[in-house]
Design brief:
- The structure holds 2 protein chains of 2 kinds.
- Helix content of chain A is about 35%, strand content about 20%.
- By secondary structure, chain A is an alpha+beta fold.
- In chain A, the strands form 6 sheets. Chain A has a 5-stranded mixed sheet. Chain A has a 4-stranded antiparallel sheet with strand order 12-11-10-14. A 3-stranded antiparallel sheet of chain A has the order 13-18-17, with no helix packed on it.
- In chain A, strand 7 and strand 8 form a beta hairpin.
- In chain A, helix 5 packs across helix 7 and helix 14 crosses helix 15.
- Chain A is globular, with a radius of gyration of 26 Å.
- The N and C termini of chain A lie far apart (about 60 Å).
- By secondary structure, chain B is of the alpha/beta class.
- The termini of chain B are far apart.
- Chain B has 20 helices and 19 strands.
- Helix content of chain B is about 45%, strand content about 20%.
- Classes of the chains: A alpha+beta, B alpha/beta.
- Chains A and B meet through strand 1, helix 1, strand 2, helix 2 and helix 14 of A and strand 4, helix 4, strand 5, helix 5 and strand 9 of B.
- Strand 1 of chain A pairs parallel with strand 5 of chain B.
Amino acid sequence: MSGGRAKARLPWKQPNLNPNLFPSGLRAVNIGLEMFAAPIGAHGGTVVSLDWRPPAEGDRDLGLLVARLEDDRNDPVGRTIAAANAEAVQRLLAAQPMLTDVLPAAQALGLGERHILHSGPPIEWPRMAGPVQGAVIGAILFEGWAATPEAARDLAASGAIAFSPCHHHAAVGPMAGVVSPSMPVVVVENAAAGTRAHATLNEGLGKVLRFGAYDDSVLERLRWFASTLAPALSRALRASGPLDLRSLTGQALQMGDEGHNRNVAATSLFTRTLAPTLVRTSDTETASAVLDFLRANDHFFLNLSMAACKSALDAAHGIKGSTVVTAMSRNGVDFGVRMSGTGDRWFTTPVGVPDGLYFPGYGPEDANPDLGDSAITETFGIGGFAMAAAPAIVRFVGGTPDDALEFTRLMGRITLARNPAYALPSLGFAGTPTGIDARRVVDSGIAPVINTGIAHREAGVGQIGAGIARAPLACFGQAIRALAEDLGVPGAVSEAA
Amino acid sequence: MTAVVQARVFPNSYRDSVELMRIAAELESLDGVLRAGLVMATSANCEVLTEAGLFVDALAGAGPNDLAIAVSATDDAAAGAALELAASRLGGQATEAAGPAHRTDARTLAEAVAELSHADLVLVSTPGPYATAEAMKALKRGLHVFLFSDNVPLADEIELKDLARRKGLLLMGPDCGTAILDGVPLGFANAVRRGSVGLVAASGTGLQQVSCLVDRLGAGISQAIGVGGRDLDERVGGVMMLAGIERLVADPGTAVLVLISKPPADSVAKAVLEVAARAGKPVVVNFLGGDPEAIRSMGLIAAPTFEAAAEAAAAIALGQPLPAAMDLSAYDPTAPDGQALLAAAASAATTLREGQWRIRGLYSGGSLAGEAKLILKSVLGADATRHEILDLGDDEYTVGRPHPMIDPRLRNEHITAAGADPDTAVILLDVVLGYGSQDDPAGAMVPAIEDARAAATAAGRSVAVVASVCGTEADPQGLSDQERRLAGAGVLLAPSNARAARLAAAIAELAAQAGPAMAQAGSLGAIAEASTAGMRP
């Protein structure tokens, strides 16, 4: 400081208080030209520079809308959103998904005659993807509503079957996600919120209904599920009491699973946990067949994982003003997103083919666009968001273990919290990134990553590969516009019209 | 000669166009490189590349988030080398900022704020269309904003400033070139001593000129708050100048305030002067070209030039009497700067030929150009309009080209052309130092000045070159080093832009009187040195 020597002669008061606007040192964020950062550091300030790019993929109006929805304690809109998101995150982190039972869908979901559920946002028969149509045919045959595949197809096309998304019935289904009244579903209750979610039993790999196969082996397996597997699991669960899926998933994440495409650890833990009671509550032949099925199906836990995530996200759904994403899902034609603060509306856009590896003899030209409700796992912060737990998964896209860590870190940029129940050893036991904020997705242009299987585009062929997909950004932009319009924020309708 | 074009795409790599143009300029200076284009591959930019003959198949798949680089060169080796250099320049970004400033991978402000706890301020220098959103996010999170970006719509500025006012925050800008808060330079700022002079300025180079002159006069700056060139527009209402005054009034480190702006709208001027009159601290007001009487009638000190503002503020800060001129009710901006100025002007004028009469001011600083125009007008009266003062930083010259403070090429072209023009008597220049400016702006001009002189000499003329350097010794470029370079090229140096403009005007006047004989003999260099030294405090 200089310039003070001669000032005593002056009539005005001399400075004797702290003359700094920022008494503990200027702390700045630099957005734009990198060259402005260094002088701040050189003069005793602290500065970080954003890895900035135009928000909303360069859509100025949408980017500005996101700014208008920013947290702001002095503004009703910003205050509402901040509080709503805090509440949504609190509910997500508090979730306690418990597996309580396995019951027919008719009983668990109240699913009526001639009603079939499918994955993803709403879609009618003519637009359904090949694998979904195949699964619907299989379900009709399984229910005995038609005797031949041709008759089943005609029935589906006739309008006599009601179709609706699993998500509309507190359910989720992998790939085609087809659920019909006689199919058994797992019942998962979120003890913290009382929400309940359901999913079918996982069929394993190969020819399976969820990839659109409906030959006799597929139907035979479904019948065995209903007659043997489901009742056995139900008896065991009733005897053992509800099974804590959160703790099971937490352990599995430390054993190389990510809760979506890799479930071998969780399936093993599940089997180990249930086996003693299963043996006590079933005859030897049944218990042996059930345990053999679980042993041979590394993905059995996937459907439990999905229902657990759904039960948590439903608890966070419907909070006015919240920008937390509560569902991401695909029906093989459209990708759909639901957001807590916009209620039961879907925001959809055409879905693409995942990036991945193919089984021998198949390639991208054979692939159906991405499919299934299983992205509910990513919505809850596992699956692709927990890639750091399962480096093996990134090899589907030729990645390295470092890439796996990077995927999880990247997802941390679009989420509001870390879930301490799901600690990731490779990231210093930081929790999985949880609570996708649609504002941050649009603002950063970082699309949520989704681990996924790849279905053949034709019904019945089945899985032909696996890989990694990115949620289309457009859905999140639509959700932001809708929320802004609901909240009466200026500029919300300009583009939507 | 056939040109080859090579191109490369950097997927999902955003860079600001200013950075890209700097790199393009560097590539074009390489041997064998004809043209270089670095753009984000939007469809509009790809069209630009196509028109420039730079769009090749390698760029076909690039989208708006991809960075496209295309180089045309005399041969493949030169093109390849240029692409390599571009790649290293782009790659260098991540490592360059190591040390006290660091780059984070944070993509959004929300994330950066979570990472950097207790953030105070956000600097926004994105392209204009996106700047409003970034500034708004910062304000909503309770952060002050330094908004360097230009091309921000007026309606956005009004909305942002209203938001800032309600939250008790500073929104400095848009198009705010510079500020100094707590001694920390923001944007294109100079490294000035800290002290008790507080500035609020709606002019970037005005703020730089006053803060540098205050430093040169031995005083220092408490805070220098930029408010953007439109703040005192009637529609904006001087919101941030009023907020800045309030802060400096409350600031125990500020003993004297200086307000800098173009003449504001009447209603705004009234509001600002009324608040200033209640400051309880001396306030120097520089409304460039405005009516000094309105200022004096409020009991404030009217300074007609940046230099006068700096002199008055420094005198108060240092406990010295106000400069004599400031005490006069009618300060005369045409007052000669003593013997040295006249001598220098006279000496320069002796070398001019008949028909050389015009001043060509080639400015990088808009407010400095404005000040020069004003001084020419007050010295030369109606004749002033025949001379030419160009603000080469103005939008009309910078479309698709870097600002002359960043890149010397545009101004150098004008300097060379001015030397070849038989009308030209004086080339008048500003050289602005500080952070953000070129590494060696004086050195970058010297070749063009030498070209201009050589062209004049070849035609049997000589041309006077007058310049002032706006900077401090502590600036990265170093004031005296820069002045030495210019003096070495025979440039007549003045310590302020106002004095440089007066010197140019004096030469033009003498040239117009066509009296070569009145001059005393003497070397230009010696007189230039005297004219500079005589005016130092």
